[in-house]
Amino acid sequence: MEKNEVKKYLLKNKELMAKFSHYVSGNLYYNVQIEDNVFQFPIETIEADYIEPFEQGEDERQVIVLSSDLGTTSFESEIKASFLNR
To answer: What is the value of pTM for the model shown?
Structure first.
């Protein structure tokens, strides 16, 4: 099934649920089972990740900037798969 076919399938099947799989390197991963295939969708949560230079007498520090479109979004263990179509 190609990418566009998956998107169409998700839009048609509004009751299909996606299940949270794991979080790694700033991405949440949700799995959706369509027929005999499992498709995985990453959701980025980090907009920037960098090392901030240190000032005199301070150690350098890592800065993580959360994605601005997260807002107060809650990520549930199961969500409607059609929500992943963005």
So the answer is: 0.76
